[in-house]
Amino acid sequence: MGYLSFRNGNRAVNDVAAQLRNELTARIDQQLRDYIEIPFRINQINAASFGRGEIVLTQLEDAYPFWQQSKTFPTTNLIYCGGEADGAFLSVGRDNNLEIRLLYSNPATDLLLQYRELDAEGNIGALTQVGQSPYDPRLRPWYEAAEAAGVATWSEIYLDFDAQVPVVTASQPVYDATGALKGVCATDFLLSVEMDEFLGQLQIGRSGEVFVMERSGRLVSSSTADEEGLIRGEGDAIERIAATESQNPLVRSTAQYLLDRFGDLNAIQAAQQLSFVLDGQRELVQVSPFQDDRGLDWLIVVAVPESDFMAQINANTRNTILLSLGALGLATALGLLTATRIAKPILQINQASQAIADGQLDQHIPAQNIGELDGLAQSFNGMAQQLQQAFHALEAANRDLEKRVEERTAELQAANDKILSLNQQLQSENLRMSAELAVAKQIQQMILPRQEELSQLEELDIAGFMQSADEVGGDYYDVLRHNGKIKIGIGDVTGHGLESGLVMLMTQTAVRTLQTHDETDPVKFLDTLNRTIYDNIQRMNSTKNLTLMLLDYAEGHLQLSGQHEEVIVVKADGDTQQIDTFDLGFPLALENDIRPFIQPLQLQLDSGDIVVLYTDGLTEAINAQKQQYGLERLKNMIQKHRQQSATDIRHAIIADVQDYIGEEPLRDDLTLVVLKQK
Description:
The chain folds into 5 domains: 2-7 and 195-311, Beta-Lactamase (2-Layer Sandwich); 31-193, Beta-Lactamase (2-Layer Sandwich), CATH 3.30.450; 320-376, no CATH class; 382-447; 449-677, 4-Layer Sandwich (Phosphatase 2c, domain 1), CATH 3.60.40.10. It has 14 helices and 26 strands. The protein has helices at 2-51, 64-72, 141-149, 191-201, 249-262, 307-357, 371-380, 383-447, 451-455, 498-516, 522-540, 616-619, 631-640, 646-661, and strands at residues 78-83, 89-94, 100-105, 112-118, 124-134, 153-154, 158-159, 166-175, 181-190, 209-214, 219-222, 231-232, 239-240, 272-278, 281-291, 297-305, 460-467, 475-482, 485-493, 546-554, 557-561, 567-570, 576-579, 601-604, 610-614, 670-677. A hairpin with a 6-residue loop joins strand 7 and strand 8. The two termini are 75 Å apart.
């Protein structure tokens, strides 16, 4: 019994440990992605204002938008811009007590940092501190990273100028009308505040650890280390430590194990579950890459001692074995004692019973020393009379039992009738809800462009596909023709379900209305559409928003506006282009005014050229191994079938996606639109 208990418990522990590591890694991955997206949204807004001259780095009151953003996004540490011409610096950030304050330097301050208080309304208060060393933003890692990249990017992890703690910065260069560098806007991501606090709140067994490290092996954050635990040295000699130098034995040993196993941490390109032995104990490990398209490339590591799960099982196994052995010994001793005392009197009673059965009714069983056997002997002679009495008593008991059974049956029947009635009501309600959802889904399908409409387009061969993850989806695509011009739209509302589907219907209606009223200016078109959706979302008290790409086609010319997934263009000769739409617009329903962010792009299509639009439900569809379909596989499918019609290309891609995911369900709405110049 103890062995079976141990064996079953060990199997259950392995399953639970694997699920725990997967769940923790997924939570950390999602939390990191939430953190790293916010700084770039802030930078995009500030860079646009800086570029238009709305922020002057020597005017302290121009830091007010930074204060508003710090209040809105508490996970940021410092929001700022630095100038190329004179090295001016203007910022708003949090001190060690998380109080928001103003920091600035410029030639007037001899580039020495000035620190001022900010009250609850963002008003500038008294000067509280002056830096000791000149601060030139142009020499800082965040400035140099953006200047070198030429686009929004992450800096390397470096030590903060003041606090000397690890920090990573999202930065974006700003250029003037001539294309010259005007400066850089950036937002600090203070690892010791945002990440260490989140990792420390995770429940990782009794003594498990989770940490994040770079491919170089340097420690980014962990569930136990504070900011001092990530660095060593003092003054100019201060530096970040490697994970193999961590004061935590489990972190240190796990990092060393990964280096010994893979040699080079760059070899880890997919999530892996491993194990190793530390001090005679088995340690369960999961390592997963974390990457984004702006330069981050980290490893998330979860390490949990197997003993955290096995301790109670081992204790239960020992207790089971000890109890079993004790019960066996006690039962053996009692059996021997009882057999000795009972065997002789029973033999006497058996001989007397056999004699009565043979007709010798004058048998007399003498009194016994054991009370139970003595009672049996005394009642033996009156056995027949007692059996008769017992028979009559049994008949009466049977009649009473039958009556009770009938009463209970009636009660059960009444309860069953009530349950059947409630079940019928529930089935009716389910049918009503299913019918309403079916109607909503049917409405969505009815407003999609029909194949006969698409086949009437003389210059373009167009095919589309949309499949919802729920009964009602949040994806959108449409093809509209008006006054000889064609407008193609594709969008993705956050989430999916009934609320996302409603936002999708509002978007389709607004686009068709603006198209019907001959609005041809892409900036006015998207701005009016955004204000309409924004006002409705506010009235709904909803947090929904959407990305939207609009393509205006006329006589081989294609105009793109709006922010969505990358657009894939495959020329007739097989040359492939990817168009990043990040700078062509801004997500709808997040800001009331998005005109400064709209920058349309022109394309010329020749015969045989292909343009493919899609939502992230396609590229992020996962198979049984939790691997995404990916953009590269999509481009390869378009290249392979580029000589075929738009409909055939669509069929080939959708079939390939379905074959890739197998029995895995769709986790997001999936939409695909294929355009081919005739």
